[in-house]
Design goal:
By secondary structure, the protein is α/β, with parallel strands linked by helices. It contains nine helices and 16 strands. Strands 1, 2, 3, 4, 5, 6, 7, 8, 9, 10, 11 and 12 form a twelve-stranded mixed sheet that branches. The protein has a four-stranded parallel sheet with strand order 13-16-14-15. It is globular, with a radius of gyration of 19 Å. Bound molecules: threonylcarbamoyladenylate (TXA) and magnesium ion.
């Protein structure tokens, strides 16, 4: 049976919360991408997520909560981390912190780690569901592992509809890229996954941000190659597409689809996954226009580089 896609009225939200309560899986809109939500305290439900996504079993998940106070009750936040949370929560920033002994997020959700990833999403439907459920909810992007992340309820229904219980329709995700992830345990934050909140924005509140993954530092699995993979072959930084290639444009000019005709990086980020997905259904080769490697462009290029490196041999 295919999961129903429901508008988020009171009845649907109550039903979603009770499904979570019973270990069900619910497609949940957030401002970044749609998440596949489950009770973070229920290892059976969390195992179901790994299974449905086909995700490597030891990839830890982000726990979503309604308020910063709820997050501080699960993990150990320094004064600097709290200041950063005050600036960007609710919103697309995830903190990796040490768990507190009384955390309710189960081991499987943390992949056995003593650390915990936490986020307070801003989307009103995510907020409504989290407030009703009143406990942490894990929600990786609601797509099979290695596939393009969903930014609309219909994407979730298409990809996972027969394996989950319900999808809440909260419209198109505004941001279109997964949250920025930082390791907030030390004296300086370490950037583990690029996202819409930039290194400079973080440094303005908490100076000394370092990039993860260099000098033997641990790398978040979100940084592994082959994470964002369309079936089509992807060629990047293309100014002149070849015959037979679909062209994903940026800025003025001819294109099959255009991330942002006006060259707006925020608009481009919001369109990225949906347009890649659309081109991937009709074309075997996609050429992508150069995207300036500044601000949000760095996150877009990061995603595109992964997709280009993993397009073929899945
Ligand atoms: O925007 C988002 O964050 C979306 C929406 C649905 O909220 N969610 C999302 O969740 O992307 P998820 O569970 O797929 O994100 C997992 C990312 C991975 O990069 C993972 O390695 C990192 O968070 N992560 C989670 N727990 C971690 C930990 N304890 N240490 C290091 N990285 C961790
Ligand atoms: Mg994902």
């Amino acid at each position: 049976m295919v999961a129903p896609v429901c508008l988020p009225d009171k009845t649907a939200l109550d039903k979603a919360a009770s499904l979570l309560e019973r270990g069900g899986l619910v497609g949940m809109p957030t401002e970044t991408v749609y998440g596949l939500a489950a009770d973070a305290a229920n290892p059976d439900a969390v195992a179901q997520i790994y299974s449905v996504k086909g995700r490597p079993a030891f990839n830890p998940l982000i726990a979503h909560v309604a308020t910063p106070e709820d997050a501080f009750a699960q993990g150990d936040f320094s004064a600097e981390a709290r200041a950063l949370a005050a600036e960007f929560w609710p919103g697309p920033l995830t903190f990796v912190v040490n768990k507190v002994p009384e955390t309710t997020v189960c081991d499987l959700a943390r992949a056995g780690l003593q650390t915990l990833a936490l986020r307070v999403p801003a989307h009103p439907v995510a907020q409504a569901l989290l407030q009703r459920f009143a406990r942490p909810v894990v929600a990786p992007s609601a797509n099979p592992s290695g596939r393009i992340s969903p930014t609309e309820a219909a994407h979730v229904a298409t990809d996972l509809g027969d394996a989950i219980d319900m999808v809440l329709d909260g419209g198109a995700s505004q941001v279109g890229l997964e949250s920025t992830v930082i390791d907030a345990r030390g004296p300086h934050p370490i950037l583990l996954r690029l996202g819409t909140i930039t290194q400079d924005q973080i440094a303005a509140i908490w100076p000394g941000v370092e990039m993860g993954g260099s000098e033997g530092k641990p790398v978040s699995p979100g940084q592994l190659l082959r994470h964002y993979a369309p079936d089509a072959a992807l060629r990047l930084n293309v100014t002149e597409p070849q015959p037979g290639e679909a062209f994903l444009g940026f800025g003025p000019g001819e294109a099959t689809l255009n991330l942002s005709p006006s060259g707006n990086l925020i608009e481009a980020a919001a369109n990225l996954f949906a347009m890649l997905r659309k081109l991937d259904t009709d074309h075997s080769r996609i050429a992508v226009a150069p995207i300036p490697d500044e601000g949000l462009g760095a996150a877009i290029n990061d995603r595109l580089a992964r997709a280009a490196n993993s397009g073929h041999d899945k």
